[in-house]
Fold each of these.
Amino acid sequence: MHADGAGLGKVQVRLKWDPSPYGEPARHLDIVAATYAAGDPYGRPEYVVHTESRSPDGTINMTRHSETGLGLGYVEVMELEFERLSSAYGRVVVGVAIHQDGGPRTFGDLSHAGVLVVEGYRQLLADDFTGVADATAATVAEFTRDPSGAWHHAELIRGFDSNPAGFMAEMGGVRR
């Protein structure tokens, strides 16, 4: 939160993982963000941002993308500018999906995978996916706008057993 109590400003979600062993198909993960209307925070997403897209107003962007991991630290980065996000939106859910090319893969199949959520130098979340080792996709963070308009972060580590397209459709639904 900013010193003036205004909530979150510019947040980065960073993702890392090691490349696949020699001779195996590349391991490809993607950060995904779904934005929900203020009046329907658990309904259908207004839009979804991933490596092939950005938000209509440019407030949510992929600034770095990897299709192989590289093993060189955080190789995929999404930036969310909450101070500029329209008041029409009240909730943003961020997750990670594993592409299923070359056979089914779960987080437990990956080595040195991790996600880091930061605002400036302040760490909001760090996770290594061990709690969702059997999942093929996972939500990691939820951002909500309070009545004053300030954005806040909550950890939302929840595993899914779906491909990237299916995950984007179900990631922000109500917990069962």
Amino acid sequence: MSAQQNPAPETPGSTEPRPLRLTLAAVLAALEGLALMAGGAYILVLGLTGDPDDRQQAVTGGVTLIVLALLPLLAARGLLGRRSWSRGPAVITQIMALPVAYNLLRADSMAVPGGIVLGVVAVAALVLLVNQETTRALGIRGPGSETE
């Protein structure tokens, strides 16, 4: 067993510049992760310093959002690094965002604009992630495709 790490296998076309669609998908995933992180931190701080109805629930909610923020942030990093594994977590994040956006749209409050933004971002990111150019840049082959 060698003490050196094995380098990650290169994805096809990794010498080519990163496609704009892949970069945009990574940026959208990172923005969602940062928004979750900020929301979680806000709820956590409010739960610890404010006067919530249930302090334990506020702290748990804040910590949960911070932990959930790791999924899109890791996916964004993987997308920027052209790692094929990163598309799965990015797609899952967008699929989870759609029901949240729907519930925000149904609210009779200031949450409606947030639901619109979240829905648009989730759909745009999904379109970018399943695009053929993005798939090719990540080295993902579809079913039935021949090996090179």
